Fold this protein.
Amino acid sequence: MHGPASPGWLLVALCAATGAYCLLRMRSTIEEQRRTAGGEALMGFGMAAMAVPAAVVAPPHWAWLGYAAVFGAAALRALWSARGGGHHLHHVVGACAMVYMAVVMAVSPGHHHVHGGSGVPLVTGALLLYFTAYVLLSGVRLLPVAAVTGSTGDTGGTGAMPPGPARTPGWGDRPELSRACRLSMGIAMLAMLVTL
């Protein structure tokens, strides 16, 4: 991608770390979470590879076409999985954004604008709006929720909930970590789209 080398390497590190965490999430006992984590790991590592500063390693033309093919297949798989709802529609948009960026880089590897005119191309602008909204919504979901006082459960007058079999979720099943992972990938996607 275009842009200075230092922020580019930070973006590579963020995406690679996110992809590595998503690989850990694939050890979950819940099949849907494993499948989602696999798609997110592919996205994280793909974004890390695409974010390597062009001044350091300029990928050949065929590499961008390879990215487009891999993420096109990922978009089709996510679209197939989206029939059941859930987070898969976001994966479709993310994979399509990766295809778009790869095609732009393949067509115009040395130029910031591929449409000849001034301003931001329509598709880039739409993706920027989508990922900005996604990042803001993901950030809000990470905010801690105040503890609800005066619950209706029987607390025995102590204010504490009665003891019960509490299961500590594993690293792959922690929803706040999954949300933080998606937030970091959304921020990275915004950074990549801005440099396009």
Observations:
- The helical segments are 5-25, 31-51, 61-81, 88-107, 122-142, 175-195.
- The chain has one domain: 5-111+119-142+171-195.
